């Protein structure tokens, strides 16, 4: 497959991510307050972060030049760091307040669909980014993977709370995801420095 075809595929994947997440912000803005769910609010903020990440990658792919890759990776590093810090803060607050999320059929349905779709998009971005040798698309694919994992964590937390009364389950998973975000933030920053050093 030639480079222009791969670029079109990468751009299409980012447009799909962007469109779904714009719709998701509207859905979660309705569902989260109705359920009084900190987890759903957190997932909505992660969705905003994913919108920003997709926008940065579209900017980089349309430039298709190394001069855009280092700034894009730095932005993604900052996005991972911000998400990790948010997850730590949210998990700590939820634990301290013993927050028990209420059931939300709309929220659960949307998060479940998002989990499946983001897994597929993350795989597509990783594969396309690897074929293009584009570290920005590959890194943003990992942002999308975190989005899928966070959706799974929200579902797990809501499910365990409803089934077993384990209100703290989503905070534990959230802390695990935060550790992954910090690792990815460091990795993306190192890639940006390496690219900057070769230009």
Describe this structure in words.
This protein has 199 residues and is an all-alpha fold. The protein has a single domain, classed as Alpha-lytic protease prodomain-like, CATH 1.20.1510. 90% of the residues lie in helices and 0% in strands. It has six helices and no strands. The protein is globular, with a radius of gyration of 17 Å. It starts with a helix and ends with a helix.
Summarize the structure.
With 199 residues, this protein is mostly helical. The chain has helices at 3-35, 38-63, 66-97, 105-132, 135-164, 169-198.
Summed over residues and divided by their number, the pLDDT gives a mean of 84
| Tally of contiguous helical segments | 6
The portion of residues forming beta strands comes to: under 5%
CATH architecture: Up-down Bundle
- Overall geometric form: globular
| CATH H-tier superfamily | Cation efflux protein transmembrane domain
CATH C-level class: Mainly Alpha
Range of helix content: over 70%
CATH topology, anyone?
A: Alpha-lytic protease prodomain-like
Q: Roughly how many Å is the radius of gyration?
A: 17 Å
Keywords:
Alpha-lytic protease prodomain-like, 199 residues, 6 helices, mainly alpha, single chain
Secondary structure blueprint with pairings:
Blueprint lengths: L2 H33 L2 H26 L2 H32 L7 H28 L2 H30 L4 H30 L1
